[in-house]
Amino acid sequence: MRVELYVEEYFYEFSPTTSVKIDETDARITSETWENWFDHWLEILQPQIPPAPSYEIGLRLTDDLQIQELNAQYRQQNKPTDVLAFAALEVDFPQSKEMLVSVPLYLGDIIVSVDTAQRQAQQQEHSLPTELAWLAAHGLLHLLGWDHPDEKSLERMLKQQVGLLNAIGIAIDME
Asked: Is the separation of the CB atoms in 50 and 18 below 8 Å?
């Protein structure tokens, strides 16, 4: 099993915002690292996802301005947020075995605001890469059908995120 991950670093390449200064000690996460993380996460979550020889996910790192536009357009909330996930599996789409062999199963897109992630990393007293991994794992769970409409389901989802981050060597303390 493998994942084809398309990382778009809008924030670092095109973002006009200067509201967040990225600390030089917060090294950017390489596309290869992102891909390794998602590969590992999908292996862990394998029993909960449709079987396929490969998967496809889009990951966009953006700024507060752009994520606010998307949040307003798709969730009718005209404010920035930390992560949005657009799941492709929410619609029942017939897929033949032949199709799955030739084309990766598209899980959806995850959009993360680096502006918000940086503020949250400072509040949580951990690094920007840790916060970005946390938000990407959260987005991935949403792509796979996880949700948190109540405290109990949120707690379950957060525990799963802690497990995913631990699996890639990032320790998160939820206390």
From this structure: no
Q: How does pLDDT run across 65-106, given as a tens digit for each residue?
A: 999 999 999 999 999 999 999 998 755 555 555 655 667 888
Report residue 65 as tokens.
Answer: 């301005």
Query: First-to-last CA distance in the chain?
Result: 34
* Structure-token match 């449709």, residue found: 50
What sections of the chain are H helices per DSSP?
Answer: 10-14, 31-45, 64-75, 97-102, 114-124, 128-143, 151-167
* pTM, two decimal places: 0.86
* Rg of the chain over all Cα atoms, to the nearest angstrom: 16
- Decide: 26 and 128 in contact? Cβ < 8 Å: yes
- Cβ 62 vs Cβ 75: under 8 Å: no
Q: Are the CB atoms for 119 and 135 separated by under 8 Å?
A: no
How many residues belong to the chain?
175
Q: Could you tell me the sign of the dihedral formed by the alpha carbons of 134, 140, 143, 147, in that order?
A: negative
Structure tokens at 5: 């991950």
**What's the CA angle centered on 100, arms 97 and 161, to 5 degrees?**
120
Contacts of 3 (CB under 8 A, 6+ apart): 35, 38, 39, 42, 54, 55, 56, 57, 104
